[in-house]
Amino acid sequence: ADRQQPILNDECSHPAYTVHIVATSPLVIYISDFLTNAEREHLLEVTKGTFSNSAVADSSGAQGLQQTRTSKSTSVAPDSVVDCIVSRALSFQSPSLHPSHVEPLQLVAYSQNQSYHFHTDWFTNPSLASPSHGGNRISSFFVYVDVAPGTTGGGTNFPVLNAPHGEEWCKTVDCDAQWEDGLTFRPVSGNAIFWMNMVDEGGEMVGDERTLHAGLPVTSGSKVGMNIWTREGSLGSEYRGV
Ligand SMILES: O=C(O)CCC(=O)C(=O)O
Ligand SMILES: [Fe+2]
User: Fold this and answer.
1) Using CB atoms within 10 A as the burial measure, which of 51, 118, 149, 155 is most buried?
2) Structural domain tally of the chain?
């Protein structure tokens, strides 16, 4: 009777998330309710006090601090809840995708006036996409883990992509944005954006320039997001922290 009760079930049950295709080239999919509230709280709890200034890889491949990314980041250590989220992200993509293709999950926290300038998640520097790195980042999930009530700004903007038409999109897409600014997702807790970073060019997979995106400045409130990056191949164990 005095046995400690697990906070969450270890069975890894998945929420009934819903998906909508936003674009087919590049493939962009919007996912509602990708995380449960219990998972969101768990991620915040296990990373509390571990955030430090976000790094960016420069053209030489070196990781450094830059004004283009003013948020704070942390890696999430694997546990049963985290592994369950990873398995969800894997099976979303393919039933045959091996967990070794996924990078350690990263949380990124923005407070007022913080942002992440335009970038691609795939690396332009081949040294960061070598076979031991599992090649390049084939896909990205950006998950809104926690958006404070009343937060303004903090959308995720794809300047080269077109916003889908229709009133029904306006909860998830910023319908007030200028057409020429491209596609901007509103930050909504628990929801996620999935996209493919690479495209087949004559039989070779290359980074897709159209996946350029930014984390727009949070103008008030705060936002915590999570990156789930999948590599083309198996990531060496030294990069998976195991
Ligand atoms: O904050 C966002 O909306 C996007 C963040 C992002 O693109 C990243 O962390 O790679
Ligand atoms: Fe990104």
Assistant:
1) 155
2) 1
